[in-house]
Amino acid sequence: MGRRERPRVLLLTSSPLDGVEGSDVQLAFDVLKALPDVDFVWFSQWPGHRQEPPGRGHPVRLLSWDGAPSFAQRAQAALAGAVLARRVDLVHAFLTVGRTFPVFSRLRPLFLGGRPVVHTVPGVMDSRFLARSRPLGTTVALSESMARRLRAAAFGDVRVVPPMIDLDEWPYLARPQGYPVVLFSGRHDRRGGAETAIDAAATAWQEGARFRLVLAMRARPGQQGAVLDEALRERAGAAGLPDVEVRGYVDDMRTLLASVHVLLFPPAALGGKADIPLTVLQALASGRPAILSDLPQFSDFGHAVLRAPAGDARRTGQQLAWLLDRPRSWEVLAERGRALAEDHFGPERFAARYAALYRELLS
Predict the structure, then answer these.
(1) What is the pTM of this model?
(2) Signed CA dihedral, 72, 163, 90, 132: sign only
(3) In CATH, which of 3.40.50.2000, 3.30.1360.40, 3.40.190.10, 3.40.50.150 is domain 3-164+347-362?
(4) Residue 301: its pLDDT value, please?
(5) Cα separations (Å) of 11 from 29, 32, 85, 93, 100?
């Protein structure tokens, strides 16, 4: 796209780009950074902002005190998007297929008019929502397995563009010295993996591994985070784990990962979480081996990670004990993870694919 043809593109997200971090917001932010020859319109939190706002493009203010994707926030974004969609050349939506998406998708002509639409799907909360949904336009999945699910649900033209990780912001780090730290990072979701991580850590401890388990938890709107955190501490105590820390939201994940030896992420279901979780990419880019469940989405990581059957805490714990006891295997996985981040999730590949898709739809 030449500089004389700067197309105007609306980044349609359910919350502001400078509000609370989320997979849709991060993906939109990455697209904005990756395509400097596009004139982007994006939603901004007002008053104030939770994150540093993008340094370019055209912000449109949404009233939000916390920057979170509440019902009021989503309604504002939908109404503002309906107006702005008539003033741009292309709409790029970043919307999880959740409870309200089927209705939005059926009202697509009302909200988005006749402009071409790219819909990047961060995740799907429940397959039942897919059956009631219609495609907004050209659909982008983050993984091959999600693309197959969307095509099977009659989403038509589905492309695959894996998310990106900024390799300069997440450099490869040497193995930390001292007492090992194992990290789980996620939300208080049913089958989200926190309980399995605790039980797996207990299995590894019983097999002789010694480490500290850190759970970095984020509560969803309406959840009582402190109560849920305490329930995890009680579960860890009952399982016989003597060294467990349950944290809330972590502002500086880079510093935390620098102290971590292994990322443990064994969900049985993603529940709307990004198809390719950002924390996993950050860990692999930093040279931190990951043990994941065997969800189809994670097959894209290949031999760069260890995988265990979803919900199988015993097998997951055995893998953790094995990995902590074998420094050479740890190094091999760390190097594979970094190589995968560079080859499959690098910014250049991400930018090239979206730039080509924009050119195709705008032509």
Answers:
(1) 0.92
(2) negative
(3) 3.40.50.2000
(4) 95
(5) 9, 8, 10, 6, 19
